[in-house]
Design brief:
By secondary structure, the protein is an alpha/beta fold. The chain contains 12 helices and 19 strands. The longest helix is centred in the middle third of the chain and has 18 residues, at 215-232. The two termini are 35 Å apart. Bound molecules: N-(aminocarbonyl)-beta-alanine and zinc ion (2 copies).
Length: 469
């Protein structure tokens, strides 16, 4: 039996804040008490450190094919990068290809992830073809396979977009089984018109990615998604919310008692659309969807996090190299050198979510320490059916523990991160607050700069109902 004793740490959960010892036996927390003596256990001194539950990032795209491109982190490199950033569980995506059933898509992704994953993982299924056969599989996927959330795209016509009828039918089907639909909420049809107009006028540079995806088209789709969910009587979750007007829509619905939830991402909290003024092609690094917004939006997002209008911070880690050389052009931003609409959409960030949100959120006086843990671990675990194994520090919970030094400064950089991607959105940014040690179900996997984990130790998580907060 493995025994681990973490001594004298400041234990912080979404609601608690106290100093105590934690005894881990095998994979779970056995005891928490002011003083525990267990000479047979491996001992770790956590005095002056915060001990928090492992982060849960519910939006990543590892080794993810989209059209002719693929993200450049494998499950192995991406989950190792997650672990170094204090994240011990991810929820990634199994995308239904045209002609494929959702169950087959899940099995395909499970086979890919299983030998590689270095942290625990689950999947949302991306539905692209809502046939009767696909719909008939959904209850079993929820009840037996542990997939209780389904992402659907209101954007990217011809590639991923589905129509309102497909969304509504899916909502109807999964609602009574404890499922939830996650929406990429942008009006894809209108955005396509704007893209074609821009290109026809010779406007091919990366900044037109942002100019052709206006806030109100995010707000419109967010409103439509919520109205569909209201009629279907199911909770709804808006992914990567960026625009103030979209947030206003969520707030209005919640005020009416609708179960409308939303996440935002670190890039929307720490960067603005000024990045698109960078010279040359450099702005392509910031081409993600939705695009970066202005300072008003950023201010509204922070306010939303503070007052629970937004429930979760996830990364939407979707890495494409900036340069062609490391992994070939199909994994690189250079695909869109002559046409912004061909730049692979997405940006990296799985490793920096926790240090950034601690530094800018807690350090910056915008959110409390408990709220920080809630946003990065507890709420995502609860929202997506992983709680109480994940998302908290309690007797019986998985011993996914992060020992975090709140006073240690470090610089975020692609030269030291653990992702395959060759750039960082936050290059050179100094932050205070560093992940020192990470335990995955009681096993020390990160010790300072040392990697002690192994591919294949991450375990698939069958999830309970989603959205029943
Ligand atoms: O630009 C983004 N967000 N790429 C990833 C795919 C998605 O829409 O989440
Ligand atoms: Zn999306
Ligand atoms: Zn995404």
């Amino acid at each position: 039996m493995t025994e681990v004793l973490i001594k004298g740490g400041r234990i912080v959960t979404a609601v608690d804040d106290y100093v105590a010892d934690i005894l881990v036996k095998d994979e779970t927390i056995e005891a928490i008490a002011r003083h525990i003596d267990q000479p047979t256990a491996e001992q770790y001194d956590a005095s002056d450190l915060i001990v928090m539950p492992g982060g849960v990032d519910v939006h990543t795209h590892m080794q993810s094919p989209v059209g002719d491109t693929e993200t450049c982190d494998t499950f192995e490199t991406g989950t190792r990068s997650a672990a170094f950033g204090g994240t011990t569980t991810i929820i990634d995506f199994a995308q239904q290809e045209y002609g494929e059933t959702p169950k087959h898509a899940l099995d395909r992704r499970l086979a890919l992830a299983e030998p590689q994953a270095c942290v625990d993982y689950g999947f949302h299924i991306i539905l692209t073809e809502v046939t009767n056969e696909a719909l008939s599989e959904l209850p079993d996927l929820i009840n037996y396979d542990g997939v209780s959330s389904f992402k659907m795209f209101m954007a990217y016509p011809g590639v991923l977009m589905v129509d309102d009828a497909a969304i509504f039918k899916t909502m109807r089907k999964v609602g009574s089984h404890g499922g939830m639909v996650n929406l990429h909420a942008e009006n894809g049809g209108v955005i396509q018109v704007l893209i074609e107009e821009a290109l026809a006028q010779g406007n091919t540079s990366p900044k037109y990615h942002a100019l052709t995806r206006p806030q109100i088209m995010e707000a419109e789709a967010t409103h439509r998604a919520i109205r569909l969910a209201e009629l279907a009587e199911i909770p709804v979750y808006i992914v990567h919310l960026s625009a103030k007007e979209a947030l206003d829509t969520v707030v209005e619905a919640r005020d009416r008692g609708i179960s409308a939830f939303a996440e935002t991402c670190p890039h929307y909290l720490f960067l603005t659309n000024e990045e698109y003024d960078r010279p040359g092609f450099d702005a392509a690094k910031y081409v993600m969807t939705p695009p970066l917004r202005d300072h008003h939006c950023q201010h509204a997002l922070w306010r939303g996090l503070k007052f629970d209008d937004l429930q979760i911070v996830s990364t939407d880690h979707c890495p494409y190299c900036f340069n062609e050389s490391p992994y070939g052009i199909y994994k690189s931003k250079q695909l869109g050198a002559d046409d912004f609409s061909k730049i692979p959409n997405g940006a990296p960030g799985v490793e920096f979510r926790i240090p950034l949100l601690y530094d800018g959120g807690v350090g910056g006086g915008r959110i409390s320490l408990n709220r920080f843990v809630q946003l990065t671990s507890t709420a995502p675990a609860k929202m997506f059916g992983l709680f109480p194994h994940k998302g908290t520090i309690a007797v019986g919970s998985d011993a996914d523990l992060v020992l975090f030094n709140p006073n240690r400064s470090h610089v975020l950089s692609a030269s030291t991160h653990h992702s395959n991607v060759d750039y960082s959105l936050f290059e050179g940014r100094q932050v205070t607050g560093k992940v020192e040690k990470v335990f995955l179900r009681g096993q020390l996997v990160v010790d300072g700069d040392r990697w002690l984990g192994k591919p294949g130790t991450g375990r698939y998580q069958k999830r309970a109902a989603s959205g029943r907060m």
